Amino acid sequence: MRVLQINSVCGIGSTGRIATDLHQVLIEHGHESYIAYGRGKPQNCENAVKIGTKYNTYHDVITTRLFDNHGFGSRKATIELIHKIDEINPDVIHLHNLHGYYINIEILFDYLKKINKRVIWTLHDCWPFTGHCSHFELVGCHKWKTGCYRCPQKSYYPSSYFLDNSQRNYERKKRAFTGLKNLTIVTPSKWLSELAKKSFLSEYDVLVINNGIDLNVFKPTQSDVRKKLGVENKFVILGVASVWGERKGFDCFLRLAEVLNDDQIIVLVGLTEKQISNLPANIIGISRTNNVTELSEIYSMADVFLNPTLEDNFPTVNLEALACGVPVLTFNTGGSAECIDEDVGKITSEHTLLTDILTSRHYDRSKCREKALNYDKRNQYMRYIELYERGN
């Protein structure tokens, strides 16, 4: 079997690592695997196919900022990709993030409708069925159900400085993305699955395959991280994100810091240098790390993991914390709470946060690790291979 994945990045970021992890599992099982990507340098894939050029990306960014037409540029790059797809002649085409300034969705889907190929599309956010945004939970917008217009998040990714083209974008996406035979939608969370079923993508089968993690890497790990950070005698509340902002709950941590006891401290991973320089004394900031062993050590030294995200799909940071034996507190937003039960954590809120942090001392860390065993990435990716083979 020959599989081609298409994603904005290859081997970097959460979706890029999902693509390369799946690539490795395919190779191990004797299949041919390729990843076509739009930006950055590819990692962990010997059969990576670049889509377009830096000029193409810059041009898409500019036109998006000016005209709010994200996903409708990159004509030349997409035509060249189609020629490459013809050369590879895959049995399965697996789509991931199609936003990201690198591809023309109308040209791509016109092509997919003309060829007899099995197509899988993993939705990592809500962008495929909105007229502009990738998430809408924070602002409580429901226009995507019937047709977007006057987008309240025009200035958010993929941001437009001037025009609001959300109504036209919605109609163009609906025409492009519907009517494709042999397409299956996959979502990492039940939450996103239910949204997709209420959108114009409801004509397709929608399956849930949770994200997975490497349990050989993320595991209870002894280290001297507490000593290095100077928190040996503190109750450590940990937060981890690739980018910290309002939507990830950064402001919640700042408010929490104002009411903590002297024996409690917050450690945040993934902050910028500017954010670190402005932290209160009881928050320790660590810049982003791509060293997963170091990250496993940081998780393992924490007493509780707090994920106050306001918008998320199925965050792997929750799984990583559990795999390292750390109980998780999270808000009931998106799919963040789907991996949490009463044995390993709690769905919390800002009103109950202090109480829930105190009671988190009583969780059995071995049960947290046991819960994480359900999300072994190899088991999850084998479900994709079974899905590929179903259409052969």
| Spatial strand arrangement across the major sheet | 3-2-1-4-5-6-7
Strand elements, count:
13
Structural class: alpha/beta
Query: Helical content, roughly?
Result: 25-40%
Oligomeric state of the chains present here = single chain
- Separate helix tally: 14
The domain tally reads 2
Q: How far is the N terminus from the C terminus?
A: 9 Å
Please name the fourth-level CATH homologous superfamily of the largest domain. Answer: Glycogen Phosphorylase B
The SSE order reads: EHEEHHEHEHEHEHEHEHEHEHEEHHH
The profile of the biggest β sheet is: 7 strands, parallel
Examine the coordinates and then state which fold CATH places here, giving the name of the CATH topology of the largest domain.
Rossmann fold
Low-confidence stretches: none
Shape: globular
Radius of gyration: 21 Å
Give the averaged pLDDT, no decimals. Answer: 95
